């Protein structure tokens, strides 16, 4: 259908050639542990800057960051569409890569992948969002810096859209904990109907319905006039 083709072409505009990552990034300070970074199937093409930022932050927190080459899709798209067998193939492939490898955690940058790995990944190692890892390792010196006050030297309005998947993970607190450290910022929560309308492949297969779900959120964004919108799910980012 024309609607699906139009949406696929729009999404393709957010993609680039897959970025290649080293298999190991050493800690930049006193080592505190070793983690594996889950890139997902979309990360290297749609969010390479997010993955690079995660590596930078994690290594500055003292983690050695491994990026296994043979990792693959988390399986969420298959799971949501009812293809349990294909989702199981993804699960088994990732278990072979991440289990029994000496990592203290598998770290994700997208809440959709994180929830899938939590609920259906079957991993023996802990799965943590990069937001949570960074927030828990903030130094006291940094945490005690004065915060920006609304209406006082505010230079940027940061709109925050918490994805459905992150709500289920309970990760809202860490998001705001990190963002509140930013100087000269006004943090604005964006809620809409509580969902951006992406819903896995729904934004591609049912674009009109996805846009209807997103409409209240978009209106809220227009009224709030943020300088930037942040969200922790690649699907939500592409949908918005």
Describe the model.
With about 240 residues, the chain is of the alpha/beta class. The strands form two sheets. A five-stranded mixed β-sheet has the order 1-3-2-4-5. A three-stranded parallel β-sheet has the order 7-6-8, covered by helices on one side. The longest helix has 18 residues.
Key words describing this protein structure:
13 helices, 5-stranded mixed β-sheet, 8 strands, 3-stranded parallel β-sheet, alpha/beta, 240 residues, single chain
Secondary structure layout:
Elements: H1 2-12, E1 24-25, E2 33-38, H2 43-46, H3 48-60, E3 63-66, H4 76-81, H5 84-98, E4 105-108, H6 111-120, E5 127-129, H7 130-136, H8 140-143, E6 156-161, H9 164-169, H10 172-179, E7 185-190, H11 202-205, H12 207-224, E8 228-230, H13 234-239
Parallel strand pairs: 2-3, 2-4, 4-5, 6-7, 6-8
Antiparallel strand pairs: 1-3
Summarize the structure.
The protein is built from 13 helices and 8 strands. The protein is of the alpha/beta class. The relative contact order is 0.13.
Strand neighbour order, sheet with most strands: 1-3-2-4-5
Give the % helix: 40-55%
Following the backbone from N to C, one meets helices and strands in this order, namely: HEEHHEHHEHEHHEHHEHHEH
Total helix count? 13
- Rg computed from alpha carbons, rounded to a whole number of angstroms: 18 Å
The counted number of beta strands is 8
Shape: globular
Mean of residue pLDDT?
Answer: 88
Q: Pick out the low-confidence regions.
A: none
Strand content: 5-15%
| First and last CA, distance | 22 Å
Largest sheet: 5 strands, mixed
What is the SS-derived class? Answer: alpha/beta
């Amino acid at each position: 259908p024309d609607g699906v083709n139009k949406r696929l072409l729009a999404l393709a505009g957010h993609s680039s050639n897959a970025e290649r990552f080293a298999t190991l990034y050493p800690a930049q300070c006193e080592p505190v542990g070793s983690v594996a970074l889950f890139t997902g199937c979309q990360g290297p093409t749609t969010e390479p800057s997010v993955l690079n930022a995660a590596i930078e932050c994690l290594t500055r927190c003292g983690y050695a960051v491994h990026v296994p080459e043979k990792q693959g899709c988390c399986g969420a798209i298959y799971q949501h569409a009812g293809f349990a067998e294909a989702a199981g193939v993804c699960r088994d492939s990732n278990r072979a890569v991440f289990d029994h490898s000496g990592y203290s955690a598998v770290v994700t940058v997208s809440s959709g992948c994180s929830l899938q790995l939590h609920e259906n990944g079957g991993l023996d190692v802990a799965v943590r969002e990069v937001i949570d890892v960074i927030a828990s390792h903030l130094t006291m010196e940094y945490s005690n810096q004065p915060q920006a006050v609304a209406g006082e030297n505010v230079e940027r309005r940061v709109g925050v859209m918490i994805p459905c998947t992150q709500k289920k993970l309970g990760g809202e607190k860490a998001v705001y904990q990190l963002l509140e450290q930013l100087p000269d910022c006004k943090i604005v929560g964006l809620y809409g109907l509580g969902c951006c309308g992406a819903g896995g492949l729904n934004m591609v297969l049912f674009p009109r319905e996805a846009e209807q779900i997103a409409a209240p959120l978009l209106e809220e964004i227009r009224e709030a006039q943020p300088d930037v919108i942040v969200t922790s799910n690649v699907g939500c980012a592409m949908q918005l």
